[in-house]
Amino acid sequence: MKEILTVKDLDLTFDTLDGPVNVLRGVSLSVREHERVALVGESGSGKSVTARAILGLLPERNRRLNGSVVFEGSDLVTERPSRLRERRGRDMTMIFQDPMAALNPVYTIRNQFLAVLSRSHPELNAKQAEARMSDALRDVSIIDPTRVLDSYSFQLSGGLNQRVMIAMGLISRPRLLIADEPGTALDVTVQQQTLLIMKRLSESYGTSILFISHNLGVVRQFADRVCVMYSGRIVEEATTAELFANPRHPYTRALLASVPRLSSDELPEPIEGSVPDPREPIKGCPFKPRCALATDDCLQPIPLREFGTQRVACIHQEEFA
């Protein structure tokens, strides 16, 4: 399948009074047509920042961004701001983690939908826009779209607001949807319903999805391919089946071991230590201080290497083959 998004060697540094903060360090990933790719890792690994860098949603001040983000042939890093704004919300959209924070409580849901449609489909008249909004809400299993459109976000439940966000993100039939941990603030049942709706609509609309999550159980059900992120870097990439059957990076193995299993009496194993401080320089593998296999050789630069259909940034990966 053709790649619609190709991120290559993306570096992001913020200059602060305490010195430079290196948030992303050479991130490279891709999303193909009709594909669902998961970006996973601990909090602070750089997942959400990567999503915002792709969409051009980062603050400009004191920022250094290098590398390329090629979306359908255009590099978004060097794209004109006006052109980027035009594509964002039409060809590529984002669903944020907390719908209550993302939706504006002083405007009705209808007005917020109309703001999206005015950018993505300015040719629609009022009747056509109303029909498009109602259809979008029915697509996410909202049976009374008129009531929801007339409501404010604080009048709706968390689950309904999350469905509204999905409908708003997909109403323009985007080529790419970035979903930043959707449903995390909701209960497990509602979260599962949310993901099933997203999966069904992505298949129906032909929309590719970059899905950000720390929940490996959800990722296993939802994603076609997984990129594992640690300390601002991609350390492993594989199909979902390969990653869960044969993880090759020690960090990936540690992540999987930390997940509780109902089918086993074994207790989950927490990962000792913490993610490195982004203000500190890193030599070699960033996981070295927490890795039981670490040697002095891990201090050298370790790029992603291909092993069959997997990519791994580890000199010890053959021990897991």
Account of the protein in words:
It is a peripheral membrane protein. Residues 7-256 form the ABC transporter domain. InterPro entries: AAA+_ATPase, ABC_Ni/Peptide_Import, ABC_transporter-like_ATP-bd, Oligopep_ABC_C, P-loop_NTPase. Keywords: ATP-binding, Cell membrane, Membrane, Nucleotide-binding, Transport. The protein has one domain (3-100, 174-320): P-loop containing nucleotide triphosphate hydrolases (Rossmann fold), CATH 3.40.50. Helix content is 32%, strand content 24%. It is built from eleven helices and twelve strands.
How is the topology of this model organized?
Blueprint: E1 3-16, E2 19-32, E3 36-40, H1 47-55, E4 63-71, E5 74-75, H2 81-87, E6 92-95, H3 99-102, H4 109-120, H5 126-139, H6 145-149, H7 158-170, E7 176-180, H8 188-205, E8 208-213, H9 216-222, E9 225-230, E10 233-239, H10 240-245, H11 250-257, E11 305-307, E12 310-312
Parallel strand pairs: 3-8, 3-9, 6-7, 7-8
Antiparallel strand pairs: 1-2, 1-4, 4-5, 9-10, 10-12, 11-12
Helix pairs in contact: 5-7, 7-8
